[in-house]
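Researcher: Structure prediction, please.
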Amino acid sequence: MTALYTVSMATFSFDIESEYDKAEMNNVFDQVKREIESRYDFKGTPAGIEWLNDAKTGFKITGNGEWQIEAILEIVRKRLATRGQSQKVLDTSQSISESNLKASQEVPFKQGLDQDKAKKITKLIRDSHPKVKIQIQGDTVRVTGTSKDDLQEVIQLLRGQDFDFPLNFTNYR
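Model: Predicted structure follows.
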């Protein structure tokens, strides 16, 4: 008599997203606003920061000229870094518009993985870690594997890449 054993392998997974923490962005906004108000070199200038819209999906930065907008952006980057947020969330590709001796730049936040970004991530993972399974689910990429070590290696690989968008790793189980 032969006994049959079935061995079930546990599977682990995590999701890759490109999101930003709204609460932290509120904190960054408040800190930058306070610093602009207290800085001597910004006194008497139109220097300021405001929300891009009611949904708070970006910043609108105002200043005397390009140099002042760059100075405010530098403050924003420092505040993001001290709060543990990626600077890659800032989309600084829009040009600075100048009128009435005032310059402004809209800086929306990057959010979500479009198909091109998701495909770039999945190709990178497939090329280096063939043991894990990858699925694109809307604006999220799910990585599944039988070994937690494999998943950790994938996370380290992605953290080592220089993407022009932020990555978050969620639902690790």
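Model: The helical segments are 22-38, 66-82, 115-128, 148-159.
Researcher: Thanks, that helps.
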